[in-house]
Amino acid sequence: MTLRIDLHTHSNASDGTTPPADLVVEARAAGLDVVALTDHDTTAGWDAAANALPAGLRLVRGAEISCVAEGISLHLLAYLFDPTYAPLADRLTALRDSRRARAQQMVALLAADGHPVDADLLPAEGTLGRPHVANVLIAAGLVTTIKQAFTPEWIGSHGQYWVPKVDFPVLEAIALVRAAGGVPVFAHPAATVRGKTVSDDTIRAMASAGLAGLEVDHVDHTDEARAHLRELASELDLLTTGSSDFHGTNKDIALGTNLTAEAALEQIATQATGVEVL
Ligand code: AMP
Ligand code: FE
Ligand code: FE
Ligand code: ZN
Predict the structure, then answer these.
(1) CB of 147 sitting under 6 A from ligand 1
(2) Pairing verdict, β 213-217 and 58-69
């Protein structure tokens, strides 16, 4: 029997909508055998997910770290790292603090232009992201879907009310994830729908710095992009993964939409020395 493995999901500890304890139950109900919880810049959901783990489901604890290279923002999935390793934990805290200030700034820019936005609608806890700001836009009647907020006139990358994140150089992030016993995988490297993506040379530099793999099967990747990433992974001896990048009702994508091969998960588990797969 082939295991169904989804290595990238978000709970309401970041910009998903499902509490971590419900996410693992939904993952099992969706027929998954292994799920990774990878909230943006936080491990806050780990314990709730672990404590609610249903029979038959294994949990890979991880995070999706906000990084930068070539002046472009990119996401690094980090699996099974020690969450108490201070040099990394401190960076994640700084990223969450800057994300909160930035979300408030985007809402303030909207208000300054006379838009009837309510900053109190931003969640009081968790990692804030643009989907939360998008929900503020919806509540103000400025857009009707989250997707419509990700446009140049609102908070799309480099859009009118977009504010950049304080970023974390990706080569430094890769080294810190490894130092924390974790396994770094480049999330959706070719998601051009979100803006500019980094060059293959940057991916080569990431591989030299300790990158373990590339997330190839992702809803934002074309077939051509997947083929190219698979070629690059084989050239650089990187593993490949697939995932849904589930965000609950903040995105139109179901758990288990793209999957990871068992051999890739085994390599990730073997390389990790931070925490175990539960
Ligand atoms: P941030 O990390 O705060 O800049 O926000 C980026 C997040 O917004 C991503 O992790 C996705 O969850 C979400 N996102 C990006 N593009 C879109 C889109 N076109 N529609 C809906 N959600 C999006
Ligand atoms: Fe997200
Ligand atoms: Fe991402
Ligand atoms: Zn994600």
Answers:
(1) yes
(2) unpaired
Q: How many Å lie between the centroid of ligand 3 and the Cα of residue 187?
A: 6
| Ligand 1 atom nearest to 129, measured from its CA | 3
pTM strictly above 0.90: yes
Question: Which atom of ligand 1 lies closest to the CA of 64?
Answer: 10
The per-residue pLDDT for 193 is 85
Nearest Cα residue to 123 out of 24, 16, 254: 16
Instruction: Report how far residue 225's alpha carbon sits from residue 205's, in angstroms, rounded to the nearest whole number.
Output: 19
If you measure from the C-alpha of residue 114 to the centroid of ligand 3, how many angstroms do you get, rounded to a whole number? Answer: 31
Average pLDDT, the chain: 97
Cα(255) to ligand 1 centroid in Å equals 17
d(CA 123, CA 152): 24
Separation CA 275–CA 134 (nearest Å): 34
Q: Pick the ligand that lies closest to the CA of residue 156.
A: 1
Q: Which pLDDT tens digit goes with each residue over 64-95? A: 999 999 999 999 999 999 999 999 999 999 99
Which tens digits make up the pLDDT trace of 119-145? 999 999 999 999 999 999 999 999 999
What ligand is nearest to the CA atom of residue 14?
Answer: 2
